[in-house]
Backbone:
């Protein structure tokens, strides 16, 4: 059981979602976040001056998956979210000790 | 024809002055009520109140961070209430009752003698007093943009009360209430000096005395909701029709021309600002175009009843250009944290407008024409005197008031209150829970 | 002078009543149209419609949780539409055509006989009918605050239709359409009884019959967007100029004074509320000041054409004070979940205003003066009768209507629908996707 | 009585036409100014400007995704400015000065000869010109809904400038400026052809030429803030009172009836839409009811000064029904990405209204009556000619303009700019930072 | 030391919070998220058409707890957040290496 | 490879960001959250009554870092975010199994 976190560009969400659906990923949890990295923030205008805004809007996707599916998922995300430009984001894979389904109390991979 | 109109404009001005001087007499004369004019001034009053709440409140509110948005709205709203009560109590009397060249008297305190039948010209005096009140409301409300995001509510409230009494009421009297500037022939149709220079210069002094916000100028400004700001600017534009065309105190050709030039100046200044940004940064911004529009509205205010379409156009372009540059100079060169740019837009815009009024009033340029025996040069001279007098009085007065208020309750919110935001720290509230 | 005005005010009242009684006759008389007065009532109509959509919709909408905001907006909007069609079909006729002391007839159903040339006094009857329609719209719209966040849309829609027919139309007829309260001499210039007591008491009954929202009173109220509420309150204030000053049905001194006292009462009540909060909790709140302003507007409504500046001031202070306390009593003492405090603000505020109208109408206190041969005591007595009659009729009637609607479609959304929010559950929509 | 009104209506129409033809003469005649009528048109001008900024801007802005909201607001605002300056420069002259049957001349370029004293009928010409300007502003602003979320700002700006010049000004001249449609007897009280068919058909062409947005039609539409949309719709409704009742150019019975039928048509169309949704999907939606209301306002626009209450009611119901179905046909059947449904609501609604005007103008149906010697059939025929002429001219003209603009600067934002959003990509801004 | 993430239906937040308070859970961090899973998105109306909106609003709760409390917490959440209907959400249990309190610099379980 | 989560007071974000920049932390992902802990919620006024609002606005910062940098990062955050008052927040250190850069597909510490 792993948790995969993907931080992507917002307009790639639909493509990622669809690509994951195609390989049978049934669920995910999505958060709107702000990213800070190598990609330079965009400039904004404010009454005749330009300012650099550091933070960029990003989408954070959290996916629980059985360990053996992790690579396929990561690959799929990379394919769907990649634009080749700086700021495309990261995928993080983390260990999970257990998962429960609130509705049924099921545990482990049955809960996903 | 033009001649007749010019005469009407001057007569109106003189009558207005006269009525303010001898109001009981005016009432006694029982000029016949003109329902059409009254309808338009009733409407204009609604429009000008609409400019402050919600117009200005939204325009300013969108520009601050979300943790301060309610403080801005609350300041606009509470100023509306406070000024109204003071107006009733004594400020209308100080501004518009008979007195000396500097300030009116107290004969109309608590609207003494203002009854159902009192008249000012051919409209009820109640309507005139209400219309003027909406100007007295928006003027101090404009100032709050200078100290947004850091002033204590109590200090803001006290400052407004004193400022209205010792700055606004006298200056309104100088120009419109029979005081020395009006007598001298200064032209200010709808408040270039009384409203915009007055508030703009006071704002500058506030910004300097209060000092910079935490993070200025390193942190980029972060307007939390520009849709709110564009909405507010739109409301200001529409409401300004009441402000300027209502200042004709009639629904006539002067009002029509005032509305027309107001609109054209705003459009011209907005496009000017937009094209400067477009050429300078490659992109025009929504905040830019609306700021330009407001600048254009400010610029035309003193001129609105005196100039023709071309005057409106030129005043718009010039104001847009000058204010654009003024914002940069104040913020980047002098590093003064006039949070929402009140001085460069209202102060500077008002000065440009007041000056150009002296030029475009000329009938050769499409205006109503200079008064008999007055040359353009001497009219511009008078305009300069009125600008300087207002600026100096407002600036020095505001400085003293701020010092007094500081001694009484302290001006600035604590550093922590500022960081947490004025909404929770001053009002125990938060704007959004979405 | 005062005497003349008083006469004018009374004559207007009498004429209005007369015209409502014999409308065909009125039309036949072909009073000369006054364009100024017509312009102002056209404007006032726009202002009062503006009070409901978007004014009240935003005022209320900001106070609910974001999952219910569209339901509030939708209720205000759909009430506007429904009431308009019923007004056209029969409700205008029931309220303002000739009938008996209790209700008008159907002679004007589907605006029968209301043509391009029909007149009511010196304005077109179409304008009078439209102006009155905007009052008929806002009254049931006010009620929705009581059952916000839990009533089914279908039930709300049915309730409104029946309520307008059997409560609003008759009560409007009682007071303004030639009915018994008007004949008795009850003073209600712009709707203290017809609009505010009527809706406020009905709201209380709705809150009780529908029962508490899930989580009341343990969970803190959570207004999702107070900027929306302040915006709405500002629009209500501006729109109220049309409501009260428009009720003069003319652009004259009565309208001017009505606007003045309306404004002053609102400002005074707002500051009263603010200072109570400030002294009690150490901080004044934005929601507090705007709630006070609305209370002050309610309080002055019945009095607006009858009292002078001082009357306006005192009515504002008293209404602000009483409504502040009424909110607490209803919510904390009686634990009634009148979600947006409709009864304590509109019901109680309307009662305070109706009572004080009987006092400040007195010419000694700056009002237009009591009618010939009527003492202050007896006028106050008449006011009390009108308050009680309206409250009892509205309360009992609303109770019966609710029971009928409950039997027909059920009043409350299911617990799950309430928890998920009325926006998704009643309208398949969500307010924000930001 | 009815007869008299009909005569007045026709005379007004003829006078208006006449004045537009011989404006200097009109000014020379120095018709006596009617302050009441002037007050109402000044007010109406404010109301109609309010329809575009902020009304339409909010109505449209709420329907797009949050990354595009400022682009919509900015487009409405910049169109307001651009059209105003072109109006001053030459467009007013092209539309309303003497010329030929197709277009006016340049005798009033830069408002040449429009002075403080110039009159149009009994109102100042400045007021007439400003009132008409607000129509010229909203018409191209309506079009932006068709290409929202994907057009370059520069292209939009150029398109608007050319479109106003070669489409709007001539079509306004055809109908209201003394051109061939008006002479033929086409009835368009407030802009069914000039404003709605004109903009609606142009919008359709824009949608087709620009092509679909990325994701259309698979991705569900995602209005980011429906509270904004409902607010904007409410402002449109209120502002429309100025649009339609102001088109009477007087505060009289025609204005009153225009306001009444406008209101009833809107209410009827809104409820029609709501009930269709309710019966079809089990739930009525807020977006549905407000869209219906706008459709009803569009439908009644050409008819507003000509029909009676029943006409208003029927036109509302029919427009609501037809527009509901038109939306589905355009979007799902033809898969045209007219982003905010401008054609089905304004184009189709305008056509329905223009047609039904020919029917309900009949005095037998409560209207002012057909012109002497004109049968209902021939009037409907004339209406059809005016619909077709406007649609063909606007459609073909818009197509050519789009091609020209495409060649000059390119129409569409790049795929990436579209994906990132027009706010950052076109304006270096973002709407919200909450 | 573990981190428990619970994804629940929004209207259940108050109940969960109270139930956790009752068993002595003193702190938590809450995020508004959008969920995607078996629960079908609701339909939304848009001018006479119905659309399915995939994502559903959910609440994500993050709780740091000593390992021995994890089961009690999970159970409590299940009890409070359960409606028996699809979409009730998940509980995820993850390992944590260390926790620090910013105010004091305390580490480990003292920091919770 | 670790993931550091810091929950801080919102107005401290800029200082923390700068302090981290100074020690070479190039990226982070930020979320607006609501916190619940010992710090008592503030009171809010609502029409003449005071209510306690439990949840406080907080900022959640997520930072991926090589294991050896974790202590320096935690220390830096503590220094920058500390006000000494209750509610300053927590730092959580969690194990990470892998990180990928979407743009390039790089893995591990090259991906940070
Ligand atoms: N060290 C980090 N810890 C957590 N999030 C990071 C880190 N570095 C980058 N991110 C996230 O990934 C996003 C993209 O990173 P960036 O360095 O801009 O480009 P790239 O993904 O191409 O390497 C950032 O906006 C941020 O949200
Ligand atoms: N594989 C997953 N990874 C991350 N979050 C998930 C996953 N599956 C479901 N979720 C989250 O749990 C919520 C509920 O899941 P769902 O499948 O709809 O119903 P249930 O909880 O009854 O199994 C989803 O809305 C989503 O937020
Ligand atoms: N057990 C916990 N699990 C997750 N987050 C917590 C926990 N305890 C506290 N927090 C988060 O840390 C913030 C600060 O905690 P608090 O107890 O108020 O003060 P302090 O940080 O000084 O200990 C809370 O607002 C919450 O966001």
Residues:
């Amino acid at each position: 059981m792993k948790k995969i976190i993907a931080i992507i560009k917002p307009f790639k969400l639909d493509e990622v979602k669809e690509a994951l659906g195609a390989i049978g990923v049934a669920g995910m949890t999505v958060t709107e976040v702000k990213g800070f990295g190598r990609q330079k923030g965009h400039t904004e205008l404010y009454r005749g001056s330009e300012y650099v805004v550091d933070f960029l809007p990003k989408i954070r996707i959290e996916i629980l998956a059985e360990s053996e599916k992790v690579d396929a998922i990561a690959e799929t995300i990379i394919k769907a979210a990649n634009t080749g430009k700086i700021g495309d984001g990261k995928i993080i894979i983390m260990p999970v000790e257990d998962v429960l389904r609130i509705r049924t109390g099921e545990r482990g991979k049955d809960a996903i | 024809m033009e001649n007749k109109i010019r005469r009407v404009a001057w007569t109106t001005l003189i009558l207005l002055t006269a009525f303010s001087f001898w109001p009981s007499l005016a009432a006694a004369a029982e000029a016949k009520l003109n329902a059409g004019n009254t309808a338009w001034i009733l409407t204009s009053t609604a429009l000008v109140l609409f400019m402050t709440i919600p117009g200005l409140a939204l325009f300013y509110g969108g520009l601050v961070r979300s943790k301060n948005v309610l403080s801005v709205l609350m300041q606009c709203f509470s100023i509306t209430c406070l000024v109204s009560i003071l107006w009733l109590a004594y400020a209308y009397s100080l501004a518009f009752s008979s007195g000396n060249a500097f300030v009116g008297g107290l004969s109309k305190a608590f609207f003494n003698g203002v009854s159902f039948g009192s008249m000012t010209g051919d409209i009820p005096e109640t309507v005139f007093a209400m219309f003027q009140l909406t100007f007295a409301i928006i003027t101090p409300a404009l100032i709050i943009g200078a100290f947004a995001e850091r002033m204590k509510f109590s200090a803001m409230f006290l400052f407004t009360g004193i400022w209205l009494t010792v700055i606004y009421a006298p200056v309104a009297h100088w120009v419109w209430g029979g005081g020395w500037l009006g007598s001298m022939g200064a032209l200010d149709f709808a408040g270039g000096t009384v409203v915009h220079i007055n508030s703009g210069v006071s704002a500058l002094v506030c910004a300097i005395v209060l000092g910079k916000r935490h993070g200025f100028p390193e942190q980029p400004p972060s307007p939390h909701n520009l849709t709110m700001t564009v909405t507010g600017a739109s409301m200001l534009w529409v409401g300004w029709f009441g402000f300027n065309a209502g200042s004709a105190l009639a629904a006539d050709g002067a009002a029509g021309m005032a509305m027309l030039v107001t609109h054209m100046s705003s459009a011209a200044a907005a496009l000017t600002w937009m094209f400067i940004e477009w050429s300078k940064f490659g992109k025009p911004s929504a905040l830019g175009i609306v700021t330009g529009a407001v600048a254009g509205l400010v610029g035309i205010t003193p001129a609105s009843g005196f100039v023709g379409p071309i005057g409106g156009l030129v005043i718009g372009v010039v104001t847009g250009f000058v204010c654009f540059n003024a914002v940069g100079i104040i913020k980047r060169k002098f590093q003064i944290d006039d949070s929402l740019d009140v001085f460069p837009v209202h102060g500077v815009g008002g000065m440009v407008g007041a000056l150009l009024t002296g030029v475009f009033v000329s009938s050769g340029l499409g205006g109503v024409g200079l008064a008999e025996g007055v040359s353009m040069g001497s009219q511009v001279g008078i305009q300069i005197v009125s600008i300087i007098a207002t600026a100096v009085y407002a600036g020095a007065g505001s400085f003293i008031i701020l010092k007094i208020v500081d001694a009484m309750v302290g001006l600035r919110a604590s550093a922590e209150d500022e960081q947490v935001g004025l909404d929770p720290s001053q009002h125990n509230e938060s704007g959004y829970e979405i």
Summary: The longest helix of chain B spans residues 376-409. The two ends of chain B are 60 Å apart (CA to CA). Chain B touches chain D through 65 residues (CB under 8 Å). Residues 1-9, 11-29 of chain B have pLDDT under 50 and may be disordered.
